[in-house]
């Protein structure tokens, strides 16, 4: 008989314990006494997190890691403290968070550590509410992000080998670590801070392109003063390949079998087991059914892990939102881009609301530990604003002449190759390619459209090229004249994992053919849709929407919010595909193929009074913008 976690119940003698758990009786479970081990109350800082036989100790006292993941970049800064308090009130004692290199260094040498990227403020808040911190600095973090959190400008090097000791990669990584580690070092446990452990990379065993790489990353961290407990994290199958000598190996729940535990024992003897990634569910992808976890299975798993003495990390405690274009893609069943919501069926919803699972685990953790909280944050009050019916619009073709000078190139250039953003290339958004054609024929992309290209003759839409369709017949309306062929290409998210990430260049990545002849002489527009794109580039002359407007086009309306402004959701039903902006900030993508049907709007993104909403619609616009009080994430 096998347990849900993959361990044979006969080996671990779980039958009586599991029966008790099924009845929600916790009399047979060990009660932990560790409430005194909090960042604010512990005065001596000498020993740190250690392995003592089959258990962890902190400052010499037994310590079980009850952790949850919140990634600060997916939650509005104004909500950080409330979310962290909810974590502590639930019974967790540790926060795990990832650090995305691409968001902290969007251009070479340009570092962002302020506002929503203020990692130090987030760590400090965690300590203030009584949580320890496990930090995952990468450089690769996965986390279902575009390129797994690696900057796209790395791919400007045609020989780049990501996540290896290739000099082009390590040179960039060392520059990044110089700036990052100098900020976080003083927040380590032994220096009086909350950081008790640091994870080296993420699931490298499943990548394993360079045997020397993990040791190189460890040395890079140590040489900059990181001296708390190091961990690696891999799924069951790849545990040995991702392991480093004298570094604690932790487990991600994928592919867990009895061999996983045998491998752990072979690697590090009798040691505590940390399930570093226990997931309630998974992320959603466009065009697929929503992933919904089984709460009963979730509880049974956790009860079982607890009875076995495991430490664990919930991924995610709060998933939050893939704001902007940060979401990546997976390729296990063909190319599948991640939706904007990262709700993940976590213990807190995308907007930070309580769930029934939160309440169940709060009850359980408070029964079996001495951790408790005197402060329980109130539930969030959401609002559904009245629909906006006065909309203005402007087509993309009207905007183009007002943009910066386009790029001229004989051949198409990928986003990463474009001489824009201080020669860092284009990371996200759309790129428009224009060329002149003189005859009809069969347009073929040969897989060079990454990821979805809408094709136009002059301003007339004729079809789309993407991962599943690489041919399109071109028939000109006036065969006697040359016409402009336009391809509007969207980067829907680079792969977040796998060895193919080295090839994840976007836009048009090679030749496009008309009747087997490569097209030449392109005019290329970088439409990265960053904040600055909207703030400086769009003209002031907008027309009132009276009927459905053919895209691609920008739509403008104004929302009046109260004081204080409240969280809400924009309903995207009636719209087709595009991007939404609130007061110049990129909220995220929407697509009518689902499953997601609302986009979360944090109240902190709204101003008391008038707020600007801009929608870039690719296909055909609606005549109103509607709101909802609850998320609608699909079935």
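^ structure tokens above, recovered residues below v
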């Amino acid at each position: 008989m096998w347990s849900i976690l993959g361990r044979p119940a006969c080996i671990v003698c779980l039958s009586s314990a599991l029966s008790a758990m099924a009845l929600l009786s916790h009399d047979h479970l060990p009660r932990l006494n560790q409430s005194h081990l909090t960042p604010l109350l512990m005065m001596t800082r000498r020993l740190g997190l250690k392995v003592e036989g089959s258990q962890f100790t902190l400052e010499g006292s037994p310590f079980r890691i009850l952790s949850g993941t919140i990634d600060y970049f997916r939650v509005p800064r104004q909500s950080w403290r409330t979310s962290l308090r909810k974590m502590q009130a639930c019974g967790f004692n540790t926060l795990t968070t990832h650090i995305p290199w691409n968001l902290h260094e969007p251009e070479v040498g340009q570092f962002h550590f302020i506002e929503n990227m203020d990692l130090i403020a987030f760590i400090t808040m965690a300590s203030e509410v009584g949580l320890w911190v496990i930090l995952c600095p990468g450089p690769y973090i996965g986390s279902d992000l575009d390129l797994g959190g690696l900057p796209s400008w790395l791919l400007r090097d045609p020989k780049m080998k990501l996540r290896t000791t290739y000099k082009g990669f390590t040179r960039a990584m060392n520059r990044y670590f110089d700036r990052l580690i100098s900020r976080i070092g003083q927040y380590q446990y032994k220096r009086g801070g909350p950081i008790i452990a640091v994870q080296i990379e993420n699931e490298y065993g499943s990548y394993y392109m360079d045997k020397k790489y993990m040791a190189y990353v460890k040395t890079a961290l140590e040489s900059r003063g990181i001296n708390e407990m190091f961990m690696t994290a891999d799924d069951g199958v790849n545990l040995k390949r991702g392991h480093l000598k004298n570094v604690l190996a932790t487990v991600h729940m994928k592919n867990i079998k009895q061999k996983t535990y045998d491998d752990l024992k072979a690697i590090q003897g009798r040691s505590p087991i940390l399930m570093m990634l226990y997931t309630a569910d998974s992320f959603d992808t466009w065009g697929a059914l929503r992933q919904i976890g089984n709460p009963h299975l979730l509880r049974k798993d956790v009860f079982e892990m607890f009875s076995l003495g495991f430490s664990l990390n919930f991924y995610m405690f709060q998933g939050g939102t893939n704001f902007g274009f940060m979401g990546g893609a997976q390729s296990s069943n063909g190319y599948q881009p991640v939706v904007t919501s990262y709700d993940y069926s976590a213990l807190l919803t995308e907007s930070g609301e309580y769930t029934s699972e939160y309440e169940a685990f709060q009850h359980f953790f408070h029964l079996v530990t001495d951790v408790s909280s005197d402060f329980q944050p109130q539930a969030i009050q959401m609002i559904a604003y009245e629909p906006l019916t006065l909309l203005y619009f402007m087509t993309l073709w009207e905007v183009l002449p007002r943009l910066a000078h386009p790029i001229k190139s004989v051949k198409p250039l990928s986003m990463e190759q474009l001489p824009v953003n201080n020669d860092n290339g284009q990371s996200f958004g759309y790129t428009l390619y224009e060329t002149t054609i003189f005859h009809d024929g069969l347009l073929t992309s040969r897989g060079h459209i990454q990821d979805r290209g809408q094709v136009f003759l002059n301003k007339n839409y004729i079809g789309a090229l993407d991962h599943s369709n690489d041919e399109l017949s071109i028939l000109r309306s006036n065969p006697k004249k040359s016409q402009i062929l336009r391809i509007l290409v969207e980067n829907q998210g680079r792969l977040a994992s796998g060895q193919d990430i080295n090839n994840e260049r976007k836009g048009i990545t090679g030749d496009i053919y008309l009747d087997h002849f490569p097209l030449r002489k392109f005019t290329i527009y970088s439409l990265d849709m960053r904040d600055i794109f909207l703030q400086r580039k769009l003209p002031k002359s907008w027309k009132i929407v009276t009927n459905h407007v053919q895209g691609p086009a920008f739509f403008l309306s104004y929302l009046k919010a109260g004081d204080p402004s409240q969280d809400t959701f924009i309903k995207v039903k009636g719209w087709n595909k595009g991007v939404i902006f609130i007061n110049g900030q990129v909220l995220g993508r929407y697509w009518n193929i689902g499953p997601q049907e609302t986009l979360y709007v944090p109240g902190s993104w709204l101003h008391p009074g008038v707020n600007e909403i801009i929608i870039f619609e690719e296909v055909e616009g609606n005549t109103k913008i509607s709101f909802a009080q609850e998320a609608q994430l699909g079935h």
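Confidence is low (pLDDT under 50) at residues 1-28.
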